[in-house]
Every structure is written in structure tokens, then in C-alpha cells.
């Protein structure tokens, strides 16, 4: 069974300030990931929404849904 990773989360703490973020592979060129081991995980390959859904995914739609879900979860 192959295991795929579609997103990454990062956290950095410097001088008592935290920085955090995430990356979601929407229509990413996956060839850029062929020579790396995602997060050091053995046997894990990167994927994208486009590959999983087998269709082109519009970035503006992803942003719209993300903004709605984020604002609901965090009451922003």
C-alpha cells in the first residue's frame, strides 16, 4: 500500500515569536518532490488534489472554501 501526503504544516519559534503555516498541494507539479523524502517519512510520496480527484482543481475555489471553513472554525 502506498502512502501519500497532500499537505504540510510548519512551525517556527524565534526570539519568543511563533510563525506557523501550511501548504496544500492543489495543482502542484509533483516532479519537484521526486528527490526528497517528505518530512523524513520513509515510503511516503507527495500527491495533490488534482491527482487524487483526477481533475483540474481551481485555486480560486480552494481559497474560497478554505476561507469559509477557517472563519467558521476560528470565528474570524
In short:
The protein is α+β, with helices and mostly antiparallel strands and 76 residues long. The protein has helices spanning 49-53, 59-74, and strands spanning 3-5, 7-14, 17-24, 44-46.
Keywords:
76 residues, alpha+beta, two-stranded parallel sheet, two-stranded antiparallel sheet, 2 helices, 29% strand
Oligomeric state of the chains in view: single chain
Per DSSP, the total helix count is: 2
Let me know the largest β-sheet.
2 strands, parallel
> What is the CA-based Rg, rounded?
15 Å
Task: Give the amount of beta strand, in percent.
Answer: 25-35%
Number of strands: 4
Uncertain regions spanning at least 5 consecutive residues: none
Structural class: alpha+beta
- Morphology: flat
Separation, N- and C-terminal Cα atoms = 39 Å
Helix proportion:
25-40%
Overall pLDDT score: 93
Order of helices and strands: EEEEHH
Strands of the widest sheet, in order across it, are 1-4
